[in-house]
């Protein structure tokens, strides 16, 4: 296979390189296979990242290579057609990539942007349109405990009129989302923290709302801090850079309420999408209707 291949994607010329490079040595999964996955999953991935300032975890030498870095700024040499978003922060103003097209997705993936992360807002950091809870099991806890906490959190959100969807983190936990009408950062974070504290009060043996490691044994940390404007969360359908290629994949509440396996590789996710469509579609449909109490 040639080292570099120029191809046309949505009318844009994208040069792909070293497609036979192995990115996941444990399984032999290559860069070319990863790019093929992103090309095929793009119809359901793009709606969840377009219009948001993307951050990437880039691993030029694969998941076991020595180089791994978190990239926020638009990299030098980016094509002029790549859409960007200006993000005004407390310490700097920067331009970040807006993954709003298949061409941009393929360009970024070719740069070894294995993981795509996005914030809970679009162009205005103080207008959040998503609430997120990151369920992270501590030592001695696992997916079974995360499932239980997810169901508890879903019911609290439902009491407050918020529709909740859930996906795997692609690692060991779960991510819960609820769509919001544009809501200030402070209000979103305060609500998420209060919800995590309520779950801890009601189930102290199962839930902790603080990150301290000495508190987390056998419990699930409900990370409400992901609602800060400066934070990002792994995007729906992104690959994760673990020992094996896994995906942060939407799952159903029936799967959460059962003992179904909740680890999915790229091929499994594509099969699920072909069968069921976008499991996170409700997050898009409800974007302007969710209101915090």
UniProtKB/TrEMBL annotation:
Is-annotated flag, keyword ATP-binding?
no
Q: Does the keyword Coiled coil apply?
A: no
Limits of the DNA ligase D polymerase domain: 30-278
Task: Write down the superkingdom of origin.
Answer: Bacteria
List GO molecular-function terms, semicolon-separated. ligase activity
Pfam families hit by this protein: LigD_Prim-Pol
The record's InterPro entries line, in alphabetical order, gives: LigD_pol_dom (IPR014145), NHEJ_LigD (IPR052171)
UniProt keyword annotations, A-Z:
Ligase
In its UniProt entry, what is this protein called? ATP-dependent DNA ligase
Q: Which organism is it from?
A: Embleya scabrispora
